[in-house]
Amino acid sequence: MTRVAVLAGDGIGPEVAAEAIRVLDAFGIAHTEHAFGGGAILGQGTPLPAETLAACTTADAVLLGAVGLPELEGASVRPEQGLLALRKELGVYANLRPAQAEGIDMIIVRELTGGLYFGAKGTRDDGTWFDTCEYTRPEVERIARRGFEIARGRAGRVTSVDKVNVLHTSRLWRDVVSELGAADYADVPLDHALVDSFAMTIVTNPGSIDVVLTENTFGDILSDVAAAVTGGLGLAASASLGDDGPGIFEPVHGSAPQIAGQGIANPAAMLRSTALLLRHALGRDDDGDALEQAIDRALLEAPTPDLGGHASTREATDTVLRALDATPTL
After folding, report:
1. Which residues pair with 122 in a beta bridge?
2. Distance separating alpha carbons of residues 204 and 194, to the nearest angstrom
3. Which residues are catalytic, by number?
4. Is the CB of residue 151 less than 8 Å from the CB of residue 188?
């Protein structure tokens, strides 16, 4: 039986996760819910309880709402530590961030388990604080293969983004990507760009971009820029995948505590993440396409306040479910 571990998390996470569960039910997909994030810290002292991790490792996919509580910002134990630990434990090194709008169809393929976020960090006796960016050749090669394979499936091209004129790790990055492209993916067009100038390209000419391949920190920043030019973080979904085992599917809008409990959160990013789950975790491409189309319809017919409308979180999902009922996939 297909089984999805749902981690509702914090802020608006439980609200949008509840709507995703309605969609899972419509597709007949079994699910279980587990504590995670700030709520888990307040209740159990850790953002990733052992029971939650065990449930995630044995599931077919993990659907995550959001993490983050204002009262835990700067604390020694933070919700975000649970997310980083979960990514590491599940080996999800490839983060996919689609960004689509009229005339725009790009996907950012971000390396997720290396770089500054996981390198050595600390303070020295002289008061210097430091973070270390580290990459190995195998780490770069495996994410590069994922990017090339995605581009090949789209009959597209890869733009590898680095900072080779300054960073030593970027020299490794560019060498490995170039060598792999020439040896195994000669049919996939490849070009290279510096992260600063490429950020401007996303803003000024996003329609020229297809598949973006980049390291952890650059991917974190560039994917948010791409979301901004295609409708905002409230519409942005993500999939975090490894070579085997469950992937993590989550919106990127954060926990938005300022609107939590008001019933006005836009569920689109969470439902788009569910569509990615259908495709990448369950191999149900037709259902994923049907869900995406239903979400697009709901954005027009029942926009939430962030889009200038008046629909509640639940009403937006009601429209999605009605659209799904009208499709032959269900």
Report:
1. 130
2. 15
3. 117, 163, 196, 220, 224
4. yes
**CA pair distance 302, 322, nearest whole angstrom:** 12
Distance CA 207, CA 162 (A): 20
* DSSP characters over 79-142: HHHHHHHHHHHHT--EEEEEEEETTEEEEEEEE-SSGGGTS-EEE-TTS-EEE-----HHHHHH
Report the interhelical angle of 313-325 vs 268-280 (nearest 10°). Answer: 40
Q: Which among 232, 215, 149, 139 has a CA at the least distance from the CA of 184? A: 149
Summarised one tens digit per residue, pLDDT across range 120-177 is 999 999 999 999 999 999 999 999 999 999 999 999 999 999 999 999 999 999 999 9
Q: What is the mean pLDDT of residues 56-85?
A: 95
Alpha-carbon span 280 to 127, nearest angstrom? 46
Distance, CA of 28 to CA of 46 (rounded, Å): 32
pTM of the model: 0.91
Task: Please count the residues of the chain.
Answer: 330
